[in-house]
Amino acid sequence: MAGRLEGRVCVVTGAGQGMGRASAREMAREGGKVVVADINETAGRETVDLIEGDGGTAAFIKVDLRDSASIKALMDGTAALYGGIDVVHANAAVHETDLTPNTSIEELSEDVWDIVNDINLKAVWLCTKHAVPYLKNSDAPSIVNVASTGATVAYPMAAAYCATKGGVQMLTKASATDLVKFGIRVNCYCPAAIRTPMLEKYIDAADDPAAVERSLRGAHLLPRLGEPEEVAKLAVFLACSDSSFITGASYLIDGGALAWRGQNA
């Protein structure tokens, strides 16, 4: 039986690890031709190897998401390689804790603020902008952006991250409104604590990593961390025709974190 993305050309940014890698692999399992886009060539090519090992089709294109020309080259290169673009999954993101120990709003440097905004928000717009000329030629085009529960509730010491993820949520709605005339659907999803290398780095850097992980798990009604593969299933749903009457939407995938004000022990 054909996969839900059979023959579709899918671009996934930040596909060298975490949710991006899981989504790229799941899209390939569903028959997609996947372009793995990442600034880390070694990690990106590892994802390609995993996809090809699963029997899927994938290629790596290096991209610097702080460079508009590089993003345009990613979309142009994808179309040249596979004949067009059907799905853009703007997954890549960075957190200020990845860049500096000084993350409180009064200490955060302007340079770090700019990096987080460039990668988490501006690049999502640029991916959309530079993909639209190709998406317009698809018979079922879809853009899937990644926001966060931090788009709705604030995380401490994460003003730039939360601001950008709130921006992604509204950019998704605005993009859906502007692009409906081309039949392009635009949606996003909002994960809570997912077991990714970025999260594990944050946990490991804490004075008491076990306590931090307990706190992250405890915020979920389902008292565990989410797995990238679970998120990938949602990304595929939003990318494929199963969600054909959904656009401008924002989906929580948060283990119930925003459904209550509790903390599991």
What does this protein look like?
There is one protein chain. This protein has helices spanning 18-29, 41-53, 68-82, 110-135, 159-179, 197-204, 209-218, 228-239, and strands at 9-13, 33-38, 57-62, 87-90, 142-146, 185-191, 250-253. The chain is an alpha/beta fold and 265 residues long. The protein has one domain: Rossmann fold (3-Layer(aba) Sandwich), CATH 3.40.50.720. Strands 3-2-1-4-5-6-7 form a 7-stranded parallel sheet, with helices on both faces. Strand 1 (9-13), helix 1 (18-29) and strand 2 form a beta-alpha-beta unit. Helix 1 (18-29) packs across helix 8. It is globular and about 50 Å long.
Would you summarize the structure shown here?
With 265 residues, the chain is an alpha/beta fold. The protein has 8 helices and 7 strands; from the N terminus they run E-H-E-H-E-H-E-H-E-H-E-H-H-H-E.
